[in-house]
């Protein structure tokens, strides 16, 4: 034992002399919900251009494949479940190298590799766990996002349900490149707000019609799901 | 090296204790699970175990009604042991009596299933475990809420700690239920005795039925093949015309050539698994044989082997007699 002490001492000295890792800058992306540029919460009532009153009640989205200026090999999580039905799950933090960044983009949904995850082989705290209720067991695939709610289409009652569960590898999309313009130094902690403006999905040219296209579980109404996948890209904006 | 008597005694004590513990561990922890000699080896994932407490936990979870929204159904409600783990209904019923989508398949020899469900949409028994929770006509109760419910039961807390060294987890639930399902081996029918060399295990009528079953004329065995009496492949067996509801395998692949195809079920214990077909449309084996004898072509994906055949009443009786010989009387009597 006595002979071990000098060896241990040397080891401890060398360990202690190593430079501490510099604190890489961290970017927190806060996801916020909006309709026509106005911040909303789930269950708020918003009126669309047809005069229908909408209430969004569920919004859960997988985000993956994060890139800052086309770099994705830093301290980025593989996947984040952005859950507006939970107050704790509306942000993601990316660890970066110091430097200047101008563009952010990420996948809306899961990359094919992630989509092949076994949801009963990961911890229950994992975003891909079966406990997140974002998995189609019958198809062995994840639901990329859920948008659900009800509308009052003029009769004074919120009795028109709408539901969009979009998935499958073919409907994986990337956001447009979102301008962020950041200059980051070691130790910095910065935030960027990414808005999900649902009016960009349900209003305007090529919009999803809540009246005429009220539901898709993807494979039952693939045309609606595909349209949703394409339109949902437009919902993600940085002010 | 010289050891004092006291040290020698102490070491012997530790060694002896380790040996005893090791032996008792082997004896008490391993489940007495034996794959029959005339069956193929059962494919097992790396993290599978037949440890007794794991299987017992899986059995408890299988019959746990707290998993369903109204605490009224469990896996075992549709998979009734005495009915070879089916339910006797054309279409399964879930919580609050909600009507499901298809006929309940038997779980006999579930450990051999290469894929799960009539449409093969699920690749493992472990993963299948989560399906009923999200289905409106099954448990219709969120998995995490269900886990909260059973976490109030001391037995489950203790069993998960003992088996997995954790609290109640999805991983543990899936592995425990899968371990139980893999013990549901059915291999003790009269036909099994015949396969193992007992010529007298089948009656003369059953032997004639067996000849018909394996004949080129009827072609039953071209899909219901091997010792497990299934090829586990997908076929359109002429039940559905164009435009019918259930897409079968096509629901999973969306491929036109898979529409209306369903995985071949095993015929083991078929006397207990009525009604038949994925939609439970035939109440008796008589009706099933009549359907295949008719052989009418109704769909472009229909299997070419289903062309109809002539069969006399005596031959039909013999064929059904043979199918009766596929019943394992002891199966499900735990």
Structure description:
Chain A is α+β, with helices and mostly antiparallel strands. Chain A contains four helices and 15 strands. Chain A is globular, with a radius of gyration of 22 Å. Chain A starts with a helix and ends with a strand. Chain B is built from 13 helices and two strands, in the order H-H-H-H-H-H-H-H-H-H-E-H-E-H-H. Chain B has a two-stranded antiparallel sheet. The model of chain B is unreliable at 1-27 (pLDDT under 50). Chain B has 334 residues and is mainly α. The A-B interface holds A 118-124, 129-131, 133, 135, 137-140, 219, 222 and B 117, 119, 121-124, 126-131, 133-134, 142-144, 147, 169-171, 173-174, 251-252, 254.
Gyration radius of chain A (Cα, Å) is 22 Å
Helix- and strand-based class of chain A?
Answer: alpha+beta
Number of helices of chain A: 4
**Main beta-sheet strand count, sense and barrel state of chain A:** 10 strands, mixed
The parts of chain A where pLDDT drops under 50 for at least 5 residues are: 1-17
Q: What percent strand of chain A?
A: 35-45%
The assembly state of the depicted protein chains is heterodimer
Number of strands of chain A: 15
Biggest interface between chains: A-B, 18 and 26 residues
Helix content class of chain A = 10-25%
What's the β-strand tally of chain B?
Answer: 2
- Rg of chain B, alpha carbons: 24 Å
Q: Tell me the β content of chain B.
A: under 5%
Short recap of the structure:
The complex is a heterodimer of chains A (239) and B (334). In chain A, strands 3, 4, 5, 7, 8, 9, 10, 11, 12 and 14 form a 10-stranded mixed beta sheet that branches.
Secondary structure elements and their pairing?
The complex is a heterodimer of chains A (239) and B (334).
Chain A: H1 4-17, E1 26-35, E2 38-39, E3 45-47, E4 53-68, E5 79-83, E6 91-95, E7 99-108, H2 112-115, E8 135-136, E9 141-152, E10 160-167, E11 173-174, E12 178-184, E13 189-197, H3 199-202, E14 215-216, H4 222-235, E15 236-238
Parallel strand pairs in A: 1-13, 10-14
Antiparallel strand pairs in A: 1-2, 1-6, 3-4, 4-5, 4-7, 4-9, 7-11, 7-12, 8-9, 9-10, 13-15
Chain B: H1 5-29, H2 52-62, H3 75-78, H4 125-128, H5 131-134, H6 143-151, H7 154-164, H8 170-181, H9 190-195, H10 204-213, E1 234-235, H11 249-253, E2 262-263, H12 285-294, H13 313-324
Antiparallel strand pairs in B: 1-2
Helix pairs in contact in B: 2-8, 10-13
